[in-house]
What does this fold into?
Amino acid sequence: MSGSITTTDLDVRPGAADQSPAAPLFVRSFGLTDPGKRRSSNEDHFLVARLVKALQIQSTNLYQPPARHSRDQSHLFIVADGMGGHAGGEHASALAVGSVEAFVLETFRWFVSCTGRDEDRILGDFRAALEHANARVLAEACQDPGLRSMGTTMTLAYSQNHDLFVAHVGDSRCYLFRGGVLHRLTSDHTLVEDMVRRGILNPDEAAHHQWRHVITNAIGAGSTDVNVEVHRVRIQADDVVLLCSDGLNGMLSDGEIARVLGAETDPETACKRLVEQANEAGGKDNITVILARYETTINGDA
It folds into this structure.
């Protein structure tokens, strides 16, 4: 049974809309994952890729070298946080990321010419990619009783120049940092977040609730249904896109994250600082962070 897509057009621009032609954007990106202080293994996986005429992988896990500056190219970022025990969670997140990577290579023929009229197709392709990942994880789980309950979150961001598309399942997150303000683009697909939306809990109660990690929508986890949340955002110069697993936002508040992004303009330095601070705050879970900064210049040159 197919899942559904929730599409939200977001405009978080401060002030009036700027109708002037948009200058092409360069992208600097970096990704980093860390097991944290309490876990002996890392069930998170991530992908940072630059798309030209084929997918050029820059990193899939562990430590990632800085990505090259680029202009008028597509970029794909994915964070997946596995669940179902050490073996199951690690396998589910790796399998889901690999499945989407393969799907992009085989299906995303449109990325070099993304225009406004392609948006419906892009959203449909995102839905298909995450549904394909869900089917792959379920198929693997059926073959091995020890992996029967495995599943994973997945938060995916695709950008080409000023167009950003976000596809999301679970409680990993995507943020947009603009003008000193951190905007959360995704919703947490958790029991507690559902209770907040229905007015049963307030946000302060939810932050410390014992059920805050109970996920209601995931890749795999025994369900054939996956509900894909999708957002479309217009990127501006100096925007920063952040993807993370809950090992980051579970340890640091939005305000603490925003202070790091405001102080550190280099994505590598900012990633390392965020992971460091999350560990200093307790490091209760695996921590994965991807940062992409959008600029009109390289090192101050036009």
Summary: DSSP finds seven helices and 14 strands in the chain. Residues 119-143 form the longest helix (25 residues). Confidence is low (pLDDT under 50) at residues 1-6, 13-20, 112-117.
